[in-house]
Design a protein that fits this description.
Structural class: alpha/beta
Largest sheet: 8 strands, mixed
CATH architecture: Alpha-Beta Barrel
Number of domains: 1
Number of helices: 15
Bound molecules: ligand V47
Strand order of the largest sheet: 5-6-7-8-9-1-10-11
Radius of gyration: 19 Å
CATH topology: TIM Barrel
CATH superfamily: Aldolase class I
Strand content: 5-15%
Order of helices and strands: HHHEEHEHEHHEHHEHEHEHHEHHEE
CATH class: Alpha Beta
């Protein structure tokens, strides 16, 4: 039996795939076979349901000391287009978004050289006070690591203060590729792979849910991709705290890697399918349409994705790197896109409680 036939048997029998299986899947050129396998697993977990949520992204500042080579969003404090939002600005944006019915705000930030930790806590408290029913998903392990550094508090203490001020779950960003080689080359000035995983572990053990991501399509090797998936799977075995995995498509424009080309549709769909097949213990695979574009996000529903994030008002990070996708879509556009694919749109909240299901 050839390797792919053996993998097919394992998938049918719900047998966990190995590192070698993962590498064989990544090297597989039969994209339709890959899609079929991943879609079958998705169907087993979630039937024809496709989840989405109504949310809004707020990037508090673009000033960042890390200056990762893949990032087109960050600025130095002295740049003319550097910004830092104050509390009023955040509330003003949220008032506009809440009239669109958001259930979640996704707040992340650059690693600002001088903003004190109290700045972030003040923002959280103000949001919690004015929008008590909006779920606050905020701050990646990279930011939490930085807060710990600038305050001298432990990671656990930082998390406790964030939770007391309003944080209810963590987004999955800052993972990039969980490889020391890749991080040394692209983002040496921030939390490393071990730290990212350890902070997620601490958060999960405190009862917080989070997501996980991979930023793919730059300098990573196939082996590094599979090792990343295995590291996330391994942590999930121990904590069960990851709700969704999100492959993030690298956009090279305006970055130090602008000589690279954006991953093709083939590569994007393959990453979605391989993530679904390797991450047997993570319930949801998210097609983040801001990075894939709406058309590939729709196709991703046939390659193992069961979640499309979200109505996302005001996305900035990917658009700084040349994304041509819309800056936000309406709920109706999103549900129509899911229906057209023959699937059932289900509006969820951040913790995947069903809010509205179509029939
Ligand atoms: O951590 C930075 C990535 C991430 C670029 O948890 C880039 O629900 C592409 O993590 N091209 C932030 N990607 C986005 C993120 C996210 C998005 C949506 C939902 C969730 C969630 C998390 O964006 C960063 C970095 O990995 N990024 N620059 C770029 N040029």
């Amino acid at each position: 039996m050839d390797a792919l036939k053996i993998i097919e048997e394992k998938i049918k029998g719900n047998v966990r795939l190995s590192k070698d299986d993962g590498l064989a899947l990544l090297r597989c050129r039969d994209i339709l076979w890959l899609g079929q396998q991943a879609a079958a697993v998705k169907k087993q977990k979630n039937g024809d349901r496709v989840f989405y949520n109504v949310n809004c992204h707020i990037n508090l500042t673009n000033v960042c000391i890390s200056r990762c080579h893949f990032c087109a969003f960050s600025r130095d404090e002295t740049d003319s287009d550097a910004y830092v939002m104050d509390v009023q600005e955040v509330l003003r944006r949220l008032r506009a978004a809440s009239s669109a019915g958001i259930t979640e705000v996704h707040i992340v930030s650059g690693l600002h050289p001088t903003c004190p930790f109290s700045y972030y806590l003040d923002i959280l408290r103000a949001v919690r006070h004015e929008f008590p029913s909006v779920h606050i998903k905020a701050f990646t392990p990279v930011e939490i690591h930085y807060f710990s550094k600038i305050t001298g508090l432990t990671v656990q203490q930082v998390l406790e203060q964030l939770v007391a001020a309003g944080v209810q779950s963590l987004p999955g960003g800052g993972a990039e590729v969980l490889s020391d080689r890749v991080r040394q080359q692209l983002c040496p000035n921030k939390a490393g792979a071990r730290e990212w995983l350890a902070i997620m572990e601490t958060a999960h053990k405190m009862g917080l849910k989070s997501n996980a991501t991979i930023l793919f399509g730059h300098i990573e090797t196939e082996e590094e991709v599979i090792d990343h998936l295995l590291a996330v799977r391994d942590l999930q075995d121990r904590t069960g705290g990851f709700q969704a995995f999100i492959p993030l498509v690298f956009h090279p424009a305006n970055t130090k890697l602008s000589h690279l080309t954006k991953p093709t549709a083939f590569e994007q769909l393959r990453m979605i399918a391989v993530s679904r097949l390797m991450l047997d213990n993570i319930e949801h695979i998210k097609a983040y349409w801001v990075m894939t574009g709406l058309k590939i996000a729709q196709l991703a529903l046939f390659f193992g994705a069961d979640d499309i994030d979200g109505t996302v008002i005001e996305e900035r990070i990917t658009h700084a790197a040349g994304a041509q996708s819309e800056r936000g879509v309406s709920q109706q556009q999103l549900t129509e896109l899911i229906r057209q694919a023959g699937k059932i749109p289900v509006e969820r909240d951040t913790l995947y409680t069903v809010l509205r299901a179509a029939h």
